[in-house]
């Protein structure tokens, strides 16, 4: 806050930087865990994990800024970390009903986009290993995982819906179910926290 300007741009930049650092820090912590478990030496795991996730973190930063910008545009009062005057944001003075309609329109739009990505794009996702898997393969540690991975006991193991022979259809249905379930959970938690907020403020 002392370096960046105290305005919306400065706030979004701070979110981007924080998001990027969170990914890199998590990768570094994972490297320490790999070394502590004797899977990959720290001198190999740390630079490999950090370098890969420095790139992945850029995507995380962009997503965070996009989501925060959308919420700030619709319901800035929901972003509790935004400590600047809400009057500095456009359309803040809109009636409560209008703001609620705008917010739920945003939620519906994001839900439709997420469902479309899960159903139509996920079946064509790359089968290449992710950051952690690629590091494990590079250092010959891919066989260190358990013979029966924990995710095999998931209701949607390996992003597949059991009983569906078509891999593409199975992936699409798994994405649909997972995305819808996540949205429902988030909405329920949000509504529960929203009901508790007035009690917290008055108490």
Provide structural commentary.
- The chain has 203 residues and is mostly helical.
- It has 5 helices and no strands.
- The protein is flat.
- It has a domain of 107 residues.
Quick gist of this model?
The protein contains five helices and no strands. By secondary structure, it is mainly alpha-helical. Helix 1 (8-36) packs antiparallel against helix 2 (42-74) and helix 3 runs antiparallel to helix 5 (167-202).
Keywords:
mainly alpha; 5 helices
Secondary structure: elements and pairs:
Blueprint: H1 8-36, H2 42-74, H3 96-121, H4 131-138, H5 167-202
> Any idea what the shape is?
flat
Order of helices and strands: HHHHH
Quote the distance from N terminus to C terminus: 30 Å
Low-confidence parts: 199-203
> What is the gyration radius calculated from CA atoms?
21 Å
């Amino acid at each position: 806050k002392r370096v960046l300007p105290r305005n919306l741009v400065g706030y979004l930049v701070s979110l981007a930087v924080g998001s990027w650092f969170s990914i890199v820090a998590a990768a570094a912590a994972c490297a320490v865990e790999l070394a502590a478990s004797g899977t990959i030496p720290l001198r190999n795991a740390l630079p490999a994990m950090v370098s890969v996730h420095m790139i992945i973190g850029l995507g995380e930063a962009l997503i965070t800024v996009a989501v925060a910008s959308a919420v700030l545009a619709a319901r800035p009062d929901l972003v509790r970390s935004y400590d600047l005057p809400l009057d500095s944001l456009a359309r803040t003075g809109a009636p409560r009903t209008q703001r609620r309609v705008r917010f739920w329109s945003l939620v519906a739009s994001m839900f439709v986009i997420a469902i479309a990505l899960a159903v139509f794009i996920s079946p064509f996702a790359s089968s290449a290993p992710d950051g952690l898997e690629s590091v494990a393969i590079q250092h010959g540690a891919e066989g260190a995982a358990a013979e029966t991975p924990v995710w095999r006991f998931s209701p949607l193991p390996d992003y597949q819906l059991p009983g569906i022979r078509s891999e593409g259809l199975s992936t699409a249905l798994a994405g649909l179910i997972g995305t819808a379930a996540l949205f429902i959970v988030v909405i329920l938690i949000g509504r529960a926290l929203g009901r508790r907020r007035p009690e917290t403020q008055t108490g």
